[in-house]
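Q: Here's a chain of 292 amino acids. Please give me its 3D structure as tokens.
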Amino acid sequence: MDIRAETSDFLDHLRSEKGLSPNTIESYGRDISAFGAHLKSENKSSFKEATGDSIYGFLHHLKTKDYASSSISRMLIAIKVLFRFLKKEGVIAQDIAKHFETPKIWQLIPESLSLEEMEELLSQPKAEDASGARDKAILELLYATGMRVSELCALKISDVSDQFVKVKGKGRKERLIPVGKAALDAIDHYLLHYRGKSESCEPLFISRQGKPISRVWVWSRIKAYAKAAGIRKRVSPHTLRHSFATHLLENGADLRLIQELLGHEDISTTDRYTHVAGSRLKNAFKAFHPRP
């Protein structure tokens, strides 16, 4: 069989035996097709011809193309699942992918913004009209709380109090996150001047058409403001979440507290931030300490 047929068999296996969702299967298909295209560039016509160097070369290629670490991690997972399947089906004698380290090594924290970059980003929306006031409140709230963009889009007006915002996270688990004055002031300005008489059960943020905002819409707005701010990094709603956590850690916040604020089930997920903050602190130490 060739790469195309092997990929088809693999996806059929996921579809019929693993019970994965169509979106997940589609994602596996894209990742395996990308790896297959890399093999074809090496003049290999079957996954049976792949070597450990083939996998390493593919991952290295993704790195040089500036793929996000999360995307590389996901592709490595797909490759490992593929080769386990091929070994189980007797297509290959040895699972060459099993020797690669777990994807945790690729799950590096996406780049966060510096304090200066964050201030520049937050200053972009001008709260002089409904759209600017809304966008200002959105950016301030994302950075003030570290909430997920899906959590932001689901907020109701009643979820915001004078000190906290009530968030429904994964598994619909609720948590309370303290909110600072800057974010609360921005929200109050938006609601008072541009929402009028709104019911407490209404969405907190709405589009010009009066509909709830979407994750894609928030991403596009943040991307536009980051470009206007002259920020060259890839900025997304998750960038603000990572910046929130990194800045807290750099300023001495306890890791358990950050875990609770982010809504992480496992402390090991939050622990990844220590690598970023620790590196920055080490660099700062070398730069400013008289005897580094």
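Q: Can you summarize the key feature?
A: The chain has two domains: 3-105, 115-288.
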